[in-house]
């Protein structure tokens, strides 16, 4: 049987030990929570890095597309015009003043046309910074370029000119999405009519592209992961928390609706 | 010689030395004050030992004066550390007001040399435990993570929590059950050795972390 003093001593020591153990548990908890916070911050940084890398990649792709368009334009249009001008000028016979005058007039006309085409090209080069003027203008520029091919009947409704808000990163991705969709149509769809609608509603930006091409099996393409363009579109839409709705029917065509929280 | 040095003075002296080594070049007011506070603590303990053991007189008045320094320093420290996350002014002012009122009450009711102001001591301990817990709460709530292992503020507050929370039982029940052990010392004496060891170990470590932090900071 313990004496009351011993019992009190034991009780006080035990209680003090318990009171000392509580801060120990608290420190362990803080340490674990802090570790969790650290992991979260690292994860966030890593996601931001991935996002930045993707933005950079998108920028490079947009620039590539621009350069390709310029190269094609220089080769197919301006180059041809200048060659023709050169040929016309070479064939001038100064002895025959009347014919020479006509040829010079023709050459001048060809040169004017070349200058006009070069101005258009300059606009396109400027288009690398096109998103700086707003997504509405960027989309318009892209559609203008498509219309110049003359291969498609375009039905356009672009309501994004007047939106007061902007998100440069998202604008770049949206522009690239449109470029990829158009590329896919040109390469695979065999379409004759393309309808492009863009609008802004309830803090969301909508981009709808409809064409009357040969269509494709969306589920099969998605499952096989063969459509690199499609995968890239999906990845970029996920990155900006957007949604994609795609309907495709053989011989009827494809409709793509993209919904992006904006800005 | 052993009469002059107690285990408490040794612990406090060592902490004082560590504080000088680690904090002497520190530009922060609080960490500079830490050196001064450790000097005051060591001097108080040393003087109390001389008064008690050699002069055989009451030294309780010295501890009653020391309480003022202790409360000012700990309150200032917690204020500084909480300030990094929230505005602690109202909280610290209320706590300090309560402690000051209790101190004044004890001065008027017991005089200065009669008894140790245990009510003020217990009240301040409870307040510091709450402050420390609040510090940990805001630390956890903060979005940024810190390297706890080398965070001087964190370890300083840990020392405060261990000391004041660990002393709760002995502070509350010592007056009721004064237990003298067969070794001739009071139970309170042993518990306070452990609490002092914990407090000054954590504080010494926080001083070392602070020196490391100062070296790494531009």
Number of domains of chain B: 1
What is the chains' assembly state?
heterodimer
Order of strands across the widest beta sheet of chain A? 1-2-3-5-4
Percent of residues of chain A in beta strands? Answer: 5-15%
Helix content of chain A: 55-70%
CA-to-CA gap between the ends of chain A? 78 Å
Structural class of chain B: mainly alpha
Percent of residues in β-strands of chain B: under 5%
Quick one: which chains have the greatest interface? A-B, 21 and 26 residues
Strand elements of chain B, count: 0
Average pLDDT score of chain A? 83
Order of helices and strands of chain B: HHHHHHHH
Question: How many alpha or pi helices of chain B?
Answer: 8
Based on Cα principal axes, name the global outline of chain A.
Answer: elongated
Domain module tally of chain A: 2
Supply database-style keywords:
heterodimer; A: 263 residues; alpha+beta; Heat Shock Protein 90; 2 domains; five-stranded mixed β-sheet; 6 helices; 5 strands; 66% helix; elongated; B: 218 residues; mainly alpha; 8 helices; 75% helix; globular; transmembrane helix (chain B)
Give a topology summary.
The complex is a heterodimer of chains A (263) and B (218).
Chain A: H1 4-90, H2 97-126, H3 135-149, E1 153-158, H4 168-189, E2 193-201, E3 204-211, H5 218-224, H6 228-239, E4 243-249, E5 253-261
Parallel strand pairs in A: 1-2
Antiparallel strand pairs in A: 2-3, 3-5, 4-5
Chain B: H1 7-23, H2 29-54, H3 60-82, H4 89-110, H5 118-141, H6 152-166, H7 168-173, H8 187-216
